[in-house]
């Protein structure tokens, strides 16, 4: 009976990890495709990103149900309990990353004069940094790697710096040429969503670190 219980618990944890990995993969692709759609003006691709967001919502619900079942039936302790709680929280954060990608995709047909609007060329690089954070934090989760999680947290400073630069650039465009205000406002919205993706990848990294070590990483002020 004990062997059966342990095997069943292991199967549940494996399933939980698989669901998180699937969610992460979908979110990562959504971020990349949303930016591609925005830069190219590809509304069909943007609509596909929006439509696929429902899959992330469904997977989050599966994670919630499985995590609650594991806690109720398996009564995990210590490391196992941390992993289940972390997975529960990570699922919610990854779902939000998908929402930010969806928000970007919805702006595809609102960006005017793509070929003439120079700030638009800055956003793909910022998005690439944020998408890389999402990719790395999922790798850290799969490998239970707290050091990689810390690297993801540190990378958020680059995304924040990019956002500050793009913000100043777009405000300058609006001041110098009021005709660009509508497009610049849309791009500011996109840039803010990318910045939030970086923040959420950082949140996941903190949970990965907690699941692996039992401790949350120190704040910058504490280092």
Characterise the protein shown here:
This protein is an all-alpha fold. It has one domain (about 1-220): Methane Monooxygenase Hydroxylase, Chain G, domain 1 (Up-down Bundle). The protein has helices spanning about 1-40, 45-75, 80-105, 125-145, 145-175, 180-215. The longest helix is centred in the first third of the chain and has 39 residues, at about 1-40. It is elongated. The N and C termini lie far apart (about 50 Å). The mean pLDDT is about 85.
Can you tell me the number of structural domains?
1
**Major sheet attributes:** none
- Beta strand count: 0
Distance between the termini: 48 Å
The percent of residues in helical segments reads over 70%
Q: With helices defined by DSSP (H or I, 4 residues minimum), what is the helix count?
A: 6
Q: Mean pLDDT score, rounded? A: 87
**CATH architectural type:** Up-down Bundle
CATH class: Mainly Alpha
Q: What's the alpha carbon Rg, rounded to whole Å?
A: 20 Å
In terms of DSSP E residues, the strand content is under 5%
Named CATH topology: Methane Monooxygenase Hydroxylase, Chain G, domain 1
* SS content category: mainly alpha
CATH superfamily name? Answer: Phosphate transport system protein phou homolog 2, domain 2
H/E series: HHHHHH
- The coarse silhouette is elongated
Question: Low-confidence segments, ≥5 residues, pLDDT <50?
Answer: none
